[in-house]
Design a protein that fits this description.
By secondary structure, the protein is an alpha+beta fold. It has five helices and 13 strands.
Length: 240
């Protein structure tokens, strides 16, 4: 993966770089629970790629530069491409290796089926989003630009893609590091459609004693309204 000299220098130094676009800071925040909210059917994390939650970030890494070195995960959405804003990856590189690209899985004609993936790699192509080679032919034919110098022969800014396909719907959004790229870093957040998504793991209490002293409020699976509801849930479970 090629990078501009300025971006490459920042990444090698372990700096945090915001990827994709110049959109305003996302207004809302929400957690993505890992791995529960990653869509298994869309996952393309391979044998020598991995991820783990670190604080509110997601460490992603590959161990080498082979075909099995890839980390790619997606979250389901139902968002018109027109409302997707300018998606960004807030990523801190902790190595001198590759960096992830933003991925939008799109139903370009609004008929309920996925037609292709738009990939944003601003460290390489600025605000130009390129289309994956496996996309449907009608999407390739309708791409804003067919010139060279991008990730594929079919590319354009998101504004241009929206104009070309006004009925397009984003079915999944996510990230991809690899394949064949060695890299290691922390994805601090994903910004998409006005929301800044951080990362978390579900907290599940093991017994009613953990409901006390505010412990009930830490549970995310399930969510309790108060201590009494928490205690009652374990009492019901014991009666079964």
């Amino acid at each position: 993966m090629r990078r501009s000299t300025a971006v490459a220098g920042a990444l090698a130094a372990g700096m945090t770089v915001l990827f994709t676009g110049s959109a305003a800071q996302a207004a809302d925040t929400a957690p993505i629970y890992v791995p529960d909210e990653f869509v298994t059917a869309q996952s393309d994390t391979r044998a020598t790629g991995d991820f783990e939650v670190v604080g509110t970030g997601l460490r992603i890494w590959t161990t080498g530069a082979t075909g099995t070195d890839k980390v790619a995960e997606y979250v389901a959405t139902d968002t018109p491409l027109a409302d997707a804003g300018e998606p960004r990856l807030d990523f801190t590189n902790t190595s001198s290796g590759g960096v992830p690209g933003f991925q939008l899985v799109v139903d370009f004609d609004g008929d309920g089926s996925q037609d292709g993936i738009l990939i944003g790699e601003p460290g390489v192509y600025g605000n130009d989003w390129w289309l994956n080679n496996a996309a449907e032919q009608f999407v390739k034919d309708g791409a804003p630009s067919h010139t060279g110098g991008s990730g594929s022969a079919n590319h354009g800014t998101l504004a241009q893609w929206r104009t070309a396909f006004p009925d397009a719907e984003v079915d999944f959004f996510g990230f991809s590091l690899g394949s064949g790229v060695k890299g290691d870093g922390v994805l601090n957040a994903i910004e998409f459609a006005g929301t800044r998504y951080t990362f978390a793991v579900h907290v599940t209490l093991a017994g009613k004693q953990q409901c006390k002293n505010g412990g009930w409020a830490t549970s995310t699976q399930p969510v309790f309204r108060n201590q009494g509801e928490c205690v009652a849930s374990f009492a019901k479970a014991a009666e079964r």
